[in-house]
Amino acid sequence: MKEKNPWHTPVTIIITVIGVIAIVALVTVAVLQNMPLLQKYKYGIVLDAGSSHTSLYIYEWPAEKDNNTGRVEQKHSCTVDGPGISSYASAPPKAGESLRACMREAEEWVPKKRHHETPLYLGATAGMRLLDMENKVVSDKVFEAVKGALEKSPFSYQGARLLKGQEEGAFGWVTVNYLDDRLKQGLETTGALDLGGASTQISFVSDNYDGSESPSNSVTFRLYGNDYTLYTHSFLCYGKDQAQRIRLAEHTQSGPKIVADPCSHPGYSETKKYSVLYDSPCVSDRKPQGAPETFDHTGTGNFQECQEVVKKVFNFTKCKYSQCSFNGVFQPILQGPFGAFSAYYFVMDFLNLTDTSITLEDVKEKLKLYCATPWSQIVQQHPKTKPKYLAEYCFSGTYILTLLIDGYNFTSVSYSDIRFIKKIKGSDAGWTLGYMLNLTNMIPAEAPDTPPLPYAGYVSIVTIIAVLIFILFLVSVRPLWPHCSKQQQIV
Ligand SMILES: Nc1ccn([C@@H]2O[C@H](COP(=O)(O)OP(=O)(O)O)[C@@H](O)[C@H]2O)c(=O)n1
Ligand SMILES: [Ca+2]
């Protein structure tokens, strides 16, 4: 008669069932507890009130990772119809109204339940800096109008203010390096070159610059545990639209009726008003006395002569520092790769010159041919581009080369370190993202604590260990298994 082991059936079954349930529960709890929360997103909105136009940017990031890195992305952008807010000096309320369509668009892009917690910022740059210098009362009225419009939105309005040139340069640098993932990884940084309509910024880190020479050009950051001393400078009036005015002011000092301009195409001819040309603090003190009301702006299309005229916009004579860029402004030795965005990109893209593997000599040759092309041909080749913009690419291309080479001291070798960029990983290069990251404290000073294992590795290890424990357990209770009991009996 078989002797029945009183332990083996009910006990092993119960132990096994409890063991399985315990392991499943352990793994489930561990996995659920540490699982990234369902992907919920947060949003931030920044309006870039530039001299020529206003753009609205919506940024998005996973809700549980406010403090983490490389995750903020541009979700949408909207270009405000009409000119920049500084152009509404004679009718400030219209500056506020102009923002309405883009604000509505933003309401559609940001999920309704996030509206009230979405920070909304407006930063104004050189157009408003000039208006502020010209007429503070009017610039305050324009700010009041845009504030009124933004306060009415369902978002969490955080203020509309004039950015300092230094902030504009530094936040452009933060944007470029954040998007390139250079800050978190502590890699060599990329310099930032921003060309606007009314001002231009250059920002870079140089081993030769510790901030002691010309401290007003230094901005220090501690980001992800790394210290940076950034050199930055903003040249007011050296955006391409104001530089164009300064250059034409050179031509019109004697108040002529006809201006033969080497930076305009042969056959170009347009009647322009002296009062409009000189309506800017960048040139208003040079307005010729007794000039006629208008002048005929005609083109001769000569690149070399255009270069000569453009060079006169810069003052290279005085420098009280160890070295300067221009106008007596300190600049350390250029270092590292550079990203050139905004109008640098728009102009070079139009001229098919964004590829910097094209040598500087070839770039000049191409520009020479372009400037010499008759205006009628240019208009015919670009039927969709507004003639107002089309008329200026020869000047703008020449200005960009002169600013880079003669102004900032790029050489035919270091020119190839420049990348002309519009976007990095889907987000526009510009100061807005860096501005928002700073104001929302989204870049920590110290490197964030990261879990020692990635999530998938953690789940795998918990599962493997649990299964191993279970197998060990089964092996340890093996003598209680039915067939083992039998074998013991036979022996
Ligand atoms: N599609 C575009 C958009 C802007 N732009 C130019 O890019 C510049 C942008 O300057 P901005 O409005 O940001 O002016 P700032 O306040 O930065 O000086 C202006 O000169 C525009 O004419 C362009 O050339 N093509
Ligand atoms: Ca700008």
UniProtKB/TrEMBL annotation:
Cofactor(s) of this protein: Mg(2+); Ca(2+)
Signal sequence coordinates: none
GO molecular function: apyrase activity; ATP binding; GDP phosphatase activity; ribonucleoside triphosphate phosphatase activity; UDP phosphatase activity
Reactions catalysed according to its record: CDP + H2O = CMP + phosphate + H(+); CTP + 2 H2O = CMP + 2 phosphate + 2 H(+); UTP + H2O = UDP + phosphate + H(+); ITP + 2 H2O = IMP + 2 phosphate + 2 H(+)
Protein name per Swiss-Prot or TrEMBL: Ectonucleoside triphosphate diphosphohydrolase 1
TM regions (residue ranges): 12-32, 455-477
Keyword NAD attached: no
